[in-house]
Amino acid sequence: MKEILFFLLCLLLFFGIVLAILFHKSISNFRKIIKQAADAREARRMAQEDEYFKRTSNKYYRENGTPNFKEGYFKGTEHETARRQQAQQQQQNTTARQHEVNTDSGVTIIDDRNIKNGGRKIFNDNEGEYVEFEEV
């Protein structure tokens, strides 16, 4: 009787292990199927986005014409560069007041302040003694 119970216990243990292995394989297969479905959904979504982009770009080109890469495609960049150069020239024109003064002792004084700040005093009235100075 003990041998039969031992045999049944071993048989039950064996089938338990087999069932656990089959359950694990079925769970891993189920996870693979879920991942494949998610990947397929993502691929469909990306294909829809690509199709939408193609439709809208084709509509834009039908309405506005295709871009001419030789003439003016990078016009915005050139325009920004020209505008920046104009601003630099204007700034240089405001500082065009630069002039040199040579003193009797051989010292050269260069005044390169812009027109707006060129004639103002550099000290406030309440900041000590101020001496008027006239350029020669």
Task: Describe how the helices and strands are arranged.
Layout: H1 2-64, H2 75-94, E1 99-102, E2 108-111, H3 115-118
Antiparallel strand pairs: 1-2
Features:
single chain; 136 residues; mainly alpha; two-stranded antiparallel ribbon; elongated
Describe the structure.
This protein has 136 residues and is mostly helical. Strands 1-2 form a two-stranded antiparallel ribbon. A hairpin with a 5-residue loop joins strand 1 and strand 2. The mean pLDDT is 78.
| Share of β-strand residues | 5-15%
Rounded to the nearest angstrom, the radius of gyration is 43 Å
Name the structural class. mainly alpha
Report on the biggest sheet: 2 strands, antiparallel
What would you call the shape? elongated
Query: What is the succession of H and E elements?
Result: HHEEH
Strand order of the largest sheet: 1-2
Terminal Cα span: 131 Å
Please report the number of helical segments.
3
Mean pLDDT across the residues is: 78
* Low-confidence runs: none
What's the total count of β strands?
A: 2
Task: Give a nutshell description of this structure.
This protein has helices at residues 2-64, 75-94, 115-118; strands at 99-102, 108-111. By secondary structure, the protein is mainly α.
